[in-house]
Amino acid sequence: MSCGDFSVRLPEWLRSHANGDRVFETPEERMRLVIELSRLNVEHGVGGPFGAAVFDHSSNRLAAVGVNLVLSSNCSVLHAEVVAIMMAQKRWGHYDLGAQGMPPFQLVTSTEPCAMCLGAVAWSGVRALVCGARDEDARHIGFDEGPKSPRWVEDLESRGIRVIRDVCRSEATEVLEYYAESGGVIYNGRQGRPS
Amino acid sequence: MSCGDFSVRLPEWLRSHANGDRVFETPEERMRLVIELSRLNVEHGVGGPFGAAVFDHSSNRLAAVGVNLVLSSNCSVLHAEVVAIMMAQKRWGHYDLGAQGMPPFQLVTSTEPCAMCLGAVAWSGVRALVCGARDEDARHIGFDEGPKSPRWVEDLESRGIRVIRDVCRSEATEVLEYYAESGGVIYNGRQGRPS
Q: Do A122 and B189 make contact, defined as CB atoms within 8 angstroms?
């Protein structure tokens, strides 16, 4: 058995977006960036129509970006939120972005998190989650959102993570629909087949 | 901003365990391997007291291993189950271990999955999940299990993933208690602090 390592690598086109510590003053500006990433991810054929980014909310600077890399990396774990969290934690050198001495971080995602990403958000240390499309918009084009707590907003808020929903929802949903119309792969685990 | 890649690397001591396609005939044998990994992970100071492995259930051969790498990799995503899934999918070259032509895979974990890992299991393509300690055993030593669906067993089973619980539960729980007694870091995101 040869596998003892795994490399997560952002595509080249995304690296240029990840550059520069750019400032995004409003939630809508931040959301439009991740929606743009979600659209570019479809256009470049990298993976699902999902983008995410972490911002330092004290300066509104971009801290890290992620897109869905499931298809291109052959890894079901690499949803946009997970990738953005991994990159932000690498940059800050800490597994807890909410640790003492850290600025307050905000995770912005083009679609509400699936069950896995919901848990990843809880462990990340971010203090706020900003969502575009609703999980029902993802389900509408065939994605399973997974075994997700029905109380997920309250669950995050009880852990000190503020949840802001429906920011540019219709623009975010347009990209989901564009992906479905262009024949994008709906890659639910085992395609929902019973055993 | 310089981060565009992230390397997940199993520790050297674990690589030797990952070698050889060893056969483990019974659920108890498979569980004892992952409990041993969880204990070794504490002894080597790598991270939390959690181990996991993926087995090809048609041959009962070990397919991939994982341990909790949160502390050593400074990444809150790298729970044992996530690491084992990433390594198995890399080895088989597919983001869906339940895809056509794959053997049936089983994920064995020393403790029931947290909210994030529960979602990761659903997306992985494994057909069965075998658990040692209960999530309440992890909570007992202070770990938050996250915003987890209370119907998580039914949620997985409805997706064709069989759940088998309480395999060598007391042996698995002993390692959790050993970790707590030895002063191991309980690394919940933001240490449960309100905002």
A: yes
